[in-house]
Design brief:
Elements lengths: L3 H6 L2 H9 L2 H57 L2
């Protein structure tokens, strides 16, 4: 499942392994993991934002299509009176 790896890295049994690493290695690796997490969160936010834009664009396109159909119908009715 998504996110389970992060849970495992924070589990009690992982803490035992983390504590066996020298301080400088542990700090470097944790810093790297946090940077990767930040990048992942940024990419996820961009994806969600782009998906929302596409949904809004699709809705806007549908609205425009309906509006133009309505206008053409009014013109047709007016010309056929």
């Amino acid at each position: 499942m998504y996110g389970e790896a992060g849970n495992e890295l924070l589990s009690d049994r992982a803490a035992i392994v983390w504590m066996t690493l020298p301080d400088d290695v542990r700090i470097r690796e944790v810093s790297s993991l946090i940077s990767e997490l930040e990048q992942s969160a940024t990419l996820m936010a961009e994806f969600i934002s782009e998906k929302q834009k596409r949904i809004e664009y699709n809705n806007w396109g549908e609205l425009l299509r309906l509006y133009s159909t309505h206008i053409f119908f009014k013109i047709w009715v007016y010309m056929n009176l």
